[in-house]
Design goal:
17 helices; Ferritin; alpha/beta; 2 domains; Rossmann fold; nine-stranded mixed β-sheet
């Protein structure tokens, strides 16, 4: 039922003149869903407070509440068509009053408050829906959803994940919002996280790592989870930063739909923090991330790091190393270049990683894992803040076929890795390298010593035919050259 509603909404939005592509309609669905969720949540809190003889103070002023401007109701709780804005009146209200009102919350200083999150969600967000009549249709459909029903919320969270995946499939910049679920699940399962640990992602995107961690912990503890543990899980476990305005609202909305009502996600550029100022209280037990790579940072940003570099991936790696608690664990997706680059900055960072951290595992991911928006070869580096590195265990993920948009990576491709990981077993796909054997340039590239080169044996008849065909093509080319010279 909910899937049909979302499909209907996306069909409506695709026809609107202000919407172009999956990124736009997912963005617009997001802010509308967020305001409906906020209304349902506050309505429920108001009822709870009333039963306890208390008063709940709503965050939004009355005229900006969902049941006043979006879908007003009569005394019987039915849609009040007489008070319902539509057409240009609705669009003018949203553009000229609602959004300016919501944006002004960005002045709030309390980063953990709901007002702060509202302000930073809407700070760089605008209504792109060109037709007020289109907006009216969408609001009416969203109004039928009940965010207080757990079954509806669970189904909607799955639908939203598919919308985000669709954005990634569109390619272009939207790829930054979605990391393949099999990669995320493999990382979370390998780390075997526990309730009571803090989990951080400095490049949140659509919040896939944090959400998978939440669901892993809920499944792991099940009914045995205490009220105190559940509160810690929802309020004090997950932390992250996101620089991009659109990614910020996507990540926030995704976490909310998965049951994390008040995520500690902040809209800011992670790399603006001077890592020299970090103290143990600022650090995290678990760090998991797929930070952006291939970008270039200005000199002002580079000044926040002891080892300066314009490469975004190298700055993020330094940030994560400095953000890890004593005894903490990290798993970071990095481009292949980080492992083999031999310029001074890359070598220094890798040396620090080997000397001051235990870089115990490197997982070589197959090319094409992030298609269609990136074909860059990547790896997962697992390290802990627990002494230096004596040796590195490598595992090569080999799906057995070339990955494409229509033939993506699957969870089954990580099964053997997860089985071998605890005891670092060696096989045709896994091997161990002593730290002392690394070159002076600290080339950490995964070079499988067990790989067997496949030799293709062809029949003499086939080889003779191939030689004749090649000679015939050479003769044709020579004839064409000779002919052109005689003209």
């Amino acid at each position: 039922m909910l899937q049909q509603k979302i499909d209907r909404i996306t069909d409506i939005l695709r026809r609107d003149d202000g919407i172009s592509g999956a990124m736009h309609y997912t963005e617009q669905i997001s802010w509308i869903l967020f305001l409906k969720f906020l209304h349902d949540k506050e309505h429920n809190q108001e009822l709870t407070a009333d039963l306890e003889g208390k008063t709940y103070q709503r965050v939004l002023a009355e005229q900006y509440r969902w049941d006043i401007w979006a879908c007003p109701k009569d005394e019987d709780g039915q849609p009040d068509k007489k008070r319902e804005l539509t057409g240009q009146d609705l669009r003018s209200f949203v553009n000229d009053k609602l959004f300016p009102y919501l944006k002004q919350f960005n002045q709030v200083q309390d980063v953990r408050s709901l007002q702060y999150k509202i302000g930073h969600i809407f700070e760089y967000l605008d209504n792109r829906i060109a037709s007020g009549h289109t907006l009216r249709e969408v609001l009416t459909l969203v109004d039928e959803m009940d965010f207080q029903r757990q079954d509806d919320l669970f189904e909607l969270s799955d639908i939203y994940e598919r919308l985000l995946k669709g954005m990634g499939a569109d390619g272009g910049n939207s790829g930054e919002f979605y990391t393949p679920r099999p990669v995320i699940k493999a990382i979370v399962q390998a780390l075997d996280i526990k309730i009571g640990q803090t989990i951080y992602d400095g490049a949140v995107g659509s919040a896939g790592f944090l959400i998978e961690s939440y669901e892993y912990l809920r499944d792991k503890y099940g009914e045995n989870i205490s009220t105190t543990q559940l509160r810690f899980l929802k309020e004090d476990t997950f932390f992250g930063n996101e620089k991009t305005p659109l990614a910020y609202i996507m990540g926030m909305m995704n976490m909310i739909l998965h049951g994390i009502d008040s995520p500690n996600i902040y809209k800011r550029n992670t790399l603006t923090a001077d890592i020299r100022d970090f103290q143990e209280k600022d650090r995290y037990d678990i760090i998991i991330a797929n930070p952006p790579f291939g970008g270039k940072e200005k000199s002002q940003i580079q000044q926040n790091f002891p080892i300066r570099s314009s490469a975004t991936e190298l700055l993020f790696l330094q940030h994560f190393m400095k953000s890890l608690k004593q005894g903490g664990q990290a798993a970071i997706v990095v481009p292949e270049g980080v492992l083999f680059q031999s310029n001074n900055a890359f070598v220094q960072v890798k040396r620090e990683l080997l000397e001051n951290f235990n870089l115990h595992t490197i997982v070589s991911l197959p090319p094409g894992i992030f298609l269609p928006y990136s074909g860059v070869k990547t790896n997962i580096v697992f390290f802990s803040r627990a002494g230096g590195t004596s040796d590195v265990w490598y595992y090569e993920i080999d799906p057995g076929y070339k990955l494409t948009k229509n033939k993506p990576i699957e969870e089954s491709h990580f099964e053997e890795f997860l089985d071998f990981f605890p005891k670092r077993k060696e096989s045709g796909k896994s091997w161990t390298v002593k730290t002392a054997s690394f070159s002076e340039e600290v080339d950490l590239t995964a070079k499988n010593p067990n790989a067997i080169k496949k030799i293709s044996h062809q029949s003499p008849k086939y080889l003779l035919s191939s030689i004749k065909d090649r000679n015939r093509k050479i003769e044709e080319l020579l004839f064409q050259i000779e002919d052109s010279l005689e003209r």
